[in-house]
Amino acid sequence: MTPLTLTMQAFGPFAGTETIDFTALGRSPLFLINGPTGAGKSSILDALCFALYGQTTGNEREPSQMRCDQANATLLTEVTLDFRLRGADYRVRRVPQQERPKARGEGTTTHNAEAQLWRLSADGEVENCLVARKVNDATAELQTLIGLDANQFRQVMVLPQGKFRELLIADSKKREEIFSQLFQTQIFQRIEERLRLQANQIEREVKEHRQHISGILDGGELESEAALEQEFEALTPQVEQARKDFETAQLQRRKAEKQRDDAQALQRQFEARDSLAAEKTRHLEQQGQVASIQDHLTQSEHAQALRPQRTALTQAQQALSTAHAEQQQADAALSSQRTSAEQAQRAFEAARERQAGLPELRERHRQLSEFIHKGQQLSELQARFQTAQAAWQQADGALKRDEAQLDTIRQQGEAAGVNLERLQTERQQLASAPVELNRFETLLTQRKELDVLTGQGRELTTQQQQATAALDQRRSESEQAERFATEQEMRWHQGQAALLALTLEDDAPCPVCGSLAHPTPAVNNADIVTKEQVENARAAQAQARQSFQGAERYHQQLAQQISYHSEQVQRLNQQLGEWASQPLNELQKTCDELHRQVARQTSVEREISQQITACDALRRERGALDKQLKAQRPAVEKAKEDALRLESQRDQLSQSLPDDARDPDAMRQTLTELEREVTQIEQAWESAQQALTNSQTQLARADEQLRGANERIERSEQSLQQARTEWQAALQASPFSDETAFQTAQLDDAQRQALTHQIEAYQRRLAELEGALQNYHTQLADKTAPDITALTTVTEIAQAEEHTQLEAWRKLDGRLTTLKGIRQKLATAHTAQAKLESQYQLWGTLSEVANGRTGHRISLQRFVLGVLLDDVLIQASERLVRMSRGRYQLVRREDPTKGNKASGLELDVADTYTGKNRSVATLSGGESFMAALSLALGLSDVVQAYAGGIQLDTLFIDEGFGSLDQDALDQAIAMLSELQMGGRMIGVISHVSELKEQMPIRIEVHASRHGSSVEVKGALH
After folding, report:
1. Do 522 and 497 form a contact (C-beta atoms < 8 A)?
2. What is the pTM of this model?
3. The domain 2-147+956-1017 is classified under which CATH number: 3.90.1720.10, 3.20.20.70, 3.40.50.300, 1.10.10.10?
4. Is Translocase a UniProt keyword of this protein (predicted)?
5. Beta carbons of 987 and 957 less than 8 angstroms apart
6. pLDDT (tens digit, 9 = 90+) per residue, 8-20?
7. Less Cβ around it within 10 Å: N or C end of the chain?
């Protein structure tokens, strides 16, 4: 990336617009950026970095803080950079967020940050817009084009002042932090942390698995895995015998249950036969009711044959009634329509008379509208005349007031300028206060944290002592509970043997060994211990073991906390340095003093801003008054002419209006009433026409409906007479004596179906009962009733025996199943534990190596950085040898640092005059600068190489060359000249006078009370 043109406006110390044409410096120039301290030399590099990435080179100030205090309030802070990259030209423009005066009214408004990026053509014109406005989009696009982010750009193209001097004398830990940022090696640190966490996790899991195995045995009330195998082998044959005993008892129970179930089934057959016989007797009692229902159904069938004639008669009667009702309605409607038609005719005649007067009313409406329009024009002319007359009177008085005010503004501007200069001087004196305050506040926070950690350390030590005592007590209680539980279990076994010995008989086999002789049966010498007491003792043992394990975990946690606490205290002591032993109130006093300076700086900044705002306001007000005075007199003459012209127009229009038309409100009210009257007449005429037409239509329709109703009455009477004759003939031919007998015999379909179902259900149930009784008589002909009570007793005895054998088998089988599960869990746990221990051998070894716990105690990241540092030192030593005339080389210290201090990145300087290596801190000021510059250039080369082969065409060095003697200065310039001949543009920022003689091409930065300016000297024209 090669800069072509840089334009800075209201940026940093530059109050106006300053442009630097780098193309005028020549091809691959070596030039000097020269100027007094504070003039703004470094601000040029800030502008370059801000244009590309929206950040300054030191990244210590926000872009919004880069606005020039001396700039005009209306001038926008912005930076524009034209640059060339891989044969193409680009232009980027950035504007930071800032406050600017409002376009209208007083006060300020926030101007948001923006950025634009364009591709330029060969003649420097805009060819394509890559980013229109968004800041983030522009930054991302530029990072892609250049191949470097902001940090990498500052590392390899802009060497900020003092940074590499710090890198030269930094210790190994500080250099590790800087190099890890430069080479982005944080991934190796993350690998170290990941390996450490993985190893610690596996170690915790191994310990948990060991405790898990102990818990599995405790859950089965087993002392060891050997006891598990012994009990398992003894219990297996007992379970098999118990199963066989249960199966024998089960067969006996099934046999007894079958005999009982067969007897119960026979008993139910006898009971069912007796129940069916009783039900048949009850069923035969319903024969009389069934015969009555059959007669009723027969009469209903005869009535069903007469139903069509009766239905026809009913329908004819209903039709005649309906026709009479329709005739009455039609007659009433016809009378109502005749009355409505007469009313509509009278309304039509009245509306036609009012409609004849409409032309006269419309003419009156037109005249009123014309008078109202002229009245409005007259009011407007009167108002405009009054306004013009008032403006003419005010302008003459304002002229004299503005002249007096202009003199006052001149005096106030001179006083504000003197005060502003005094405040700016005080602001420069307080410029470093915020940085110092931030540093001392950090120290104060760390010191307070150190005091807190010291108190916590004492508390943790006390807690650890208490935890150690508690752990010893819990261990003793656990061992005592275990001995007591073992003793109780042994006493229980002895008691069980004594109880079994009491049941032994001569010549009878022993239930344990099967022997017929019993020479020394067991004797109980103490109280018999119950199974419950043994279980209670085991439970107390488990609880004591859990308490001991909890105390042990708590003791381990305290040890880890104390270790972490010690590391934190050591870290804070290193960070605080000498302040770690100083009284806290001394550090607090320093912070308070810096707070007062920062507060004063803020107050001064606010006063400067107020003074600048006041000066800008005075300048604007003075300019406005000058313009107003020049334009005021012609404006007065013009206002007078306008007033006289409007007065003449008003008088002419007033004479054309009659006297009764001068009240606009009255005229508008009359016009509104006239419009309402015309609308009413038109609507009434249309309504009357429509109503007359509708009434005539409705009258004709009503007359037609009445004639139709009369015709339907005649037809209905004829149909009724015919239906009555046919009904009488059918009734006489039927078995019914009169119509009442017919009505009584009628049944609907649902009633007939229900009665039919009753008869069928009676006959069907009677047949079922007779068939079932016949079947039971055949089955029970040669059988007698069983004894159910005796068979039930035998079954219950067999069931009790089966239950007893089942419980015995379940108890033994359950214990055997438990032991099998424990064996399986133990096998799984041992497999998992072996796998974890194998993993720990791998991950633990990797973690120790990566975190520097073996050998020279060098971590993975420090090892990688050491390799990179060797590459840097090779490049740096080549330059340092030349600059020091073969005396010095930079080398990495091989001997590890004593103690736990980080090592592996310490620098020494090899002195060929003495043949020994010594610390870089022993170099003089000039020698330190040569070493720092060599290290900076070497680091730039290596970072460039590791940045993917990015071609770096530009290098800016912001270092102090004043510490070099003439010979060393010549060597440094010669080295930079070689870099220039390699095709780089190199800019050196310095105020050393000797450099002016050796660098004819210069960018001079001039400082003044109104802001800095830039001048290019020795440029090509």
Report:
1. yes
2. 0.39
3. 3.40.50.300
4. no
5. yes
6. 999 989 989 999 9
7. C
